[in-house]
């Protein structure tokens, strides 16, 4: 009887250990997947910010392309996502994207603000990636 109890307890611990290992692996795979997607998102935001700022700085006459970049950036940034501090940074970044298009704007100063706000947003996102891996 004691041997049977020992075997059952051993099996129970074995199954429990296997479950914990399985759960840890699933979490690791999910974290890697999320991390890869977040990095790709970050790279895309940088690419679009560069395209947008360059188009504005060089006074591109292709207003449709500038509008498309602006809309794409607003969708990518999704200012409704994240805690209040990062939401505010995203909103400020989107507002600065709008301000730079105004004729009276100081393009160089606006580009500098856009770069700094983008750094803040990406820094926050990178911290989220590190926290999840």
Verbal overview:
Helix content is 86%, strand content 0%. Helix 1 (2-57) packs antiparallel against helix 4, helix 2 packs antiparallel against helix 3 and helix 3 packs antiparallel against helix 4. With 133 residues, it is an all-alpha fold. It has one domain (39-132). It is rod-shaped.
Tally of helical runs: 4
Estimate nothing, just give the exact number of structural domains. 1
Shape: rod-shaped
Strand content bin: under 5%
Low-confidence stretches: none
Largest sheet: none
What descriptors fit this protein?
4 helices; about 130 residues; mainly alpha; about 0% strand; rod-shaped
Q: What would a concise description of this structure say?
A:
This protein is 86% helix and 0% strand.
């Amino acid at each position: 009887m004691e041997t049977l109890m020992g075997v059952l307890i051993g099996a129970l611990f074995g199954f429990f250990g296997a479950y914990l290992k399985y759960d840890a692996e699933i979490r690791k795979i999910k974290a890697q997947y999320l991390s890869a997607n977040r990095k790709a998102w970050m790279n895309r935001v940088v690419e679009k910010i560069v395209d947008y700022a360059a188009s504005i700085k060089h006074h591109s006459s292709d207003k449709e392309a500038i509008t498309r970049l602006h809309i794409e950036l607003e969708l990518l940034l999704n200012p409704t996502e994240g805690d209040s501090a990062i939401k505010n940074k995203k909103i400020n970044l989107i507002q600065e994207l709008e301000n730079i298009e105004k004729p009276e704007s100081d393009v160089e100063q606006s580009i500098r603000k856009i770069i700094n706000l983008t750094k803040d947003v990406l820094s926050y996102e990178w911290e989220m990636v590190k926290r999840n891996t």
